[in-house]
Amino acid sequence: MVVQVGAQGASGMTAALAQGELERRLLEIGFVEGAEVEILHEGMIGRDPIGVRLDDMRVALRRREADAVLVRVQGAYAEAAE
Question: Domains in the chain, please, with CATH?
Answer without folding.
Answer: 2-72 (2.30.30.90)
